[in-house]
Design goal:
Distance between the termini: 17 Å
Radius of gyration: 15 Å
Order of helices and strands: HEEEEHEHEE
Shape: globular
Oligomer: single chain
Number of helices: 3
Mean pLDDT: 97
Number of strands: 7
Low-confidence stretches: none
Largest sheet: 5 strands, mixed
Helix content: 25-40%
Strand content: 25-35%
């Protein structure tokens, strides 16, 4: 078990199976010491979290969904890199929140993914970030998160 997987276990978290792409893209591209992770959707207990913040999804549910996106990012990185111990730093997260025009707590929603990265990687998990509201996401997902991660050579 890698050091990072041991830390996830300490936190009581389990990585999901890395999801297959739903369109014409690859989950992770590694180039110039960075891994670019395509947007990941939230699966909680095997079910896609759907709906809109400010309408039928609570802030707490959105935060949990963002954490689930973060776990899927880690699952994709493990599949692509072979070991999560190759991760040097979380550089940037991009968060997209399916929300009504009146909902303005997108940053609090995406904190679910951000706080996960800090809990797992410590200071190396602190990152730049965007958190934006959008009117719809693929498959009706409530949240989507992508990432740029600095990686050590294989």
């Amino acid at each position: 078990m890698s050091k990072i997987e041991a830390r996830l276990a300490e936190l009581g978290l389990t990585l999901p199976q890395a999801a297959a792409p739903v369109a014409a893209y690859v989950p992770v591209v590694e180039a110039a010491g960075l891994a670019h992770v395509s947007g990941q959707l939230p699966f909680v207990e095997g079910q896609l979290v759907t709906g809109r913040l400010g309408e039928d999804v609570t802030l707490e549910q959105g935060n949990e969904a963002a954490q689930a996106c973060g776990l899927m990012i880690l699952a994709q990185l493990k599949a692509a890199l072979g070991s999560l111990d190759r991760i040097e730093r979380i550089v940037k997260l991009g968060g997209f929140v399916n929300s009504t025009g009146a909902f303005t707590d997108q940053p609090k929603v995406i904190n679910g993914a951000s706080e996960l990265m800090v809990a797992v990687f410590g200071d190396a998990g602190k990152h730049a970030r965007s958190a934006v509201g959008v009117p719809v996401l693929p498959l009706g997902a409530a949240v989507e998160v992508d990432a740029i991660v600095a990686v050590r050579p294989a």
